[in-house]
Each structure stands twice: as C-alpha cells, then as structure tokens.
Design a protein that fits this description.
mainly alpha; 59% helix
C-alpha cells in the first residue's frame, strides 16, 4: 500500500518541482532585467577601480580613494560574503550573455531546425577559463606602464557602457566595437562566454576567498546514481565531483540547485522546502541599496 501511495505521489511531486524551477528561472530573469536597466555600469565601475589603482602604482603616486575604488571594494566585499551572486544575477554583461545564448537557441531551433543548440565543445572550457587571468594580467601591466589609456579605443566594455548609456557615437572606438561584436558572437555559441573566458572582473572575483557559509553544499551519498543534472545545467561547466563549489568559477546562479531531483544542494539560506525567492531578493535589495549609495543607479 505504501509503495502504491509513493508511486501515485510521484507525478504531483514532479509537477511541484517543475513549477519551482520555472519560478526560480523567472525570478532570476526578473532580477537580471531590473539591474540591467538600473545599474548597467556596476561592472565598468569596478573595472575602473582596478585600472585606477594600478595606474597610480605605475605613476609612483599614493593610492587614492575614489568612487571607482569604492565600487571595486564594494563588489569584492559583496562577493566574499555572498559568493559571485553579482555575476550570476546582477552584472549587466552577464545578463547580456544569458540573453544572447537564449536567443541563439531559439533561432537555431525555429529558423535552422536544429534539435540541439550548437555550442563550443566543453573540452575547450578548462583552458578557455584561464584566458581571463591573462587578460587581467595584461590590463594590470598596461595600467602600471601608463599606456592603457592610449589604447582606450580597444575596450569592448567601454563600448558596452556607451550603449547602456544610450550613447551611439563610437568615434575612436572602432576596434572596441569589433571586439564587442566578436564577444557577442561567442556568447551565442557558449553559455557565459565572456564571463568564463575574457572577463577581468571575473578573474578578480574567482581569486577572492568566499566565506564558507556562502557556498552551496551537497551530500554526494544522497545523489541519484548517474544523475548529473546539476553538472549538465551548470553554465560554467564546474565538475562537482572534482572541484565542488569551492571552485572560483561558480557564479552562484543556483541553477544546479533548482534542477536537483532530491533538493540535495543546500546552504545556510537555502533548505529543502524553503522559499528560495527570499534569499535572492534580500541579496538583490542589499546590493541595490549599496549601488544606490555609491551612485551606480541611473535612476537615483
């Protein structure tokens, strides 16, 4: 009798979990949309903080506090306390990447009749993820040598900031426009292409120590044999069996947790049966207040 009851309950349980996944996806999309329009410059402000610090070092000048440095410190502190939540939910560049990859899938399916979306092979990911550290190192060296500003027209993130500010004059930024178009093309064939492979701030965040309570945890013994749903859904191809969530590549998007059939991915603010929207909204509201205080919100 108990076996029959459990069998009968399975469809209802599956429907409940499917609704939960859809709500989580809509929640993340909603938060990303709000921050894309309200704080599109947060990424650029943090990057400008990195640039400002190393330009001072290169010029032999004392480090000076500025709005850009404050944004960098705030982003790093937020990441240490909450993981790379900024990358997963709040970064305008990351949100653009998610939209482009989704749109690419729709076009491939509807126009080109592909059953599965074309994407770059996963075997290229581990090597590609190391490129962003080289990008960061190159930028730091150019800033320290005080030659970065002379190459300002090469910056795709500057072009992106112009677009989000509705500024469409790109005189002197032709190379930056070309690089941004190439990045968008990469976003179409690899999920989180820029975040994984090229983002200098992603390199900074991945090197930061994350407080233990901010990390998702799983009990491998409670996993279904051969499941790997979490691994298949991970946009940054984290190998949970090898790296776990201490891998600096984790962008805290929590897609792995929403697809786990046993709700086996937990954290201090995420427990089975708990309202997962509240922690997300709390962190988003906290960063919104922080960004507004730093002058990053375009509407305030």
């Amino acid at each position: 009798m108990k076996q029959r009851e459990n069998t009968a309950a399975q469809p209802a349980l599956c429907r409940r979990r499917l609704r939960g996944r859809k709500r989580a996806a809509w929640l993340r999309t909603g938060v990303q949309t709000v921050f894309f329009f309200a704080m599109p410059g947060a990424f650029v402000a943090g990057f400008s903080g990195v640039k400002s610090l190393f330009q001072s070092v290169g010029a032999g000048q004392p480090l000076q506090w500025s709005g850009f440095v404050a944004a960098l410190v705030a982003l790093c502190a937020f990441t240490i306390v909450f993981g790379r939540f900024f990358c997963g939910y709040l970064c305008a560049f990351g949100s653009l990447g998610d939209f482009v990859y989704w749109l690419s899938g729709v076009v491939q399916k509807k126009v080109f009749r592909r059953r599965t979306q074309y994407r770059l092979p996963d075997r290229l990911t581990p090597l590609g993820q190391k490129v962003k550290y080289a990008v960061l190192a190159l930028i730091v060296i150019l800033c320290a040598l005080n030659v970065y500003d002379s190459l300002g027209g090469w910056s795709p993130w500057s072009v992106f900031s112009f677009l989000t500010a509705l500024r469409f004059s790109f005189s002197g930024y032709e190379i930056g426009v070309l690089l941004l178009l190439l990045i968008v093309a990469g976003m179409a064939v690899k999920e989180r292409f820029f975040c994984q492979f090229l983002c200098p701030m992603g390199a900074v965040f991945s090197l930061l120590p994350i407080l233990p309570f901010a990390m998702l945890r799983r009990d491998p013994e409670n996993c279904l044999t051969g499941c790997q749903a979490c691994k298949k859904q991970c946009p940054v191809s984290i190998r949970l069996e090898a790296d776990g969530f201490q891998n600096g590549e984790c962008i805290s998007c929590e897609r792995c947790a929403t697809v786990c059939p046993r709700e086996n991915l937990t954290r201090w603010d995420r427990r089975p049966g708990q309202n997962v929207a509240l922690p997300v909204l709390f962190k988003a509201a906290l960063f919104f207040a922080l960004g507004a205080w730093l002058g990053l919100c375009r509407f305030l």
